[in-house]
């Protein structure tokens, strides 16, 4: 969540940064992202992070990573 906040600027970034502090942080973050109309941006960012992790894991285990849907 912090990494996506770093890609934003201004009031959106400030509000989201406050939202992720303390208990219930993910729910507050998700609600604010929805309210700001940037849900798709969040999901795209999250998917790209998962893709990078998968590529790294494959390399570390000597496997070839192939793009594509299952």
Descriptive report:
With 70 residues, this protein is an all-alpha fold. It starts with a helix and ends in a 10-residue tail after the last helix. The relative contact order is 0.12. It contains four helices and no strands.
**Largest sheet at a glance?**
none
Overall helicity = over 70%
Q: For the residues shown, what is the average pLDDT?
A: 93
Oligomer classification: single chain
How many distinct folded domains?
A: 1
What proportion of the residues form beta strands (DSSP E)? under 5%
Give the class from helix and strand content and strand pairing: mainly alpha
Termini gap: 26 Å
Put simply, the count of helices is: 4
Radius of gyration: 15 Å
Kindly state the number of beta strands: 0
Specify the overall morphology.
elongated
Give the ordered list of helices and strands: HHHH
Give the low-pLDDT segments.
Answer: none
SSE topology:
Layout: H1 2-6, H2 10-19, H3 25-36, H4 39-60
Question: Tags for this entry?
Answer:
single chain; 70 residues; mainly alpha; UPF0158
Q: What is the gist of this entry?
A:
Pfam families: UPF0158. The chain has 70 residues and is mainly alpha-helical. It has 4 helices and no strands.
